[in-house]
Task: structure prediction
Amino acid sequence: EASDMILADDNFATIVTAVKEGRVVWDNLRKVLVINTCINNAQGLSILFGLALGLSQSPLSSIQVLYSNLICAITLGFV
Result:
């Protein structure tokens, strides 16, 4: 079968560098997903428990959820 990657040159160092960059991207993506999943689960569960307990108001307002997601996105941008 044909290769999935097309090389612009025959230098093996280019492939090594590309693999290293790909691993860095994958590690950063994993970090973001692990942190973001925990935060979103906490938000969802707090609202779900509020509904299950029959609270008259939601434990988190929509502004609080948006602010939390904004801070999470900004801080994870520095990873």
Remarks:
- DSSP finds two helices and no strands in the chain.
- Helices lie at 12-52, 62-76.
- The CA atoms of residues 50 and 56 lie 8 Å apart.
- The two ends are 37 Å apart (CA to CA).
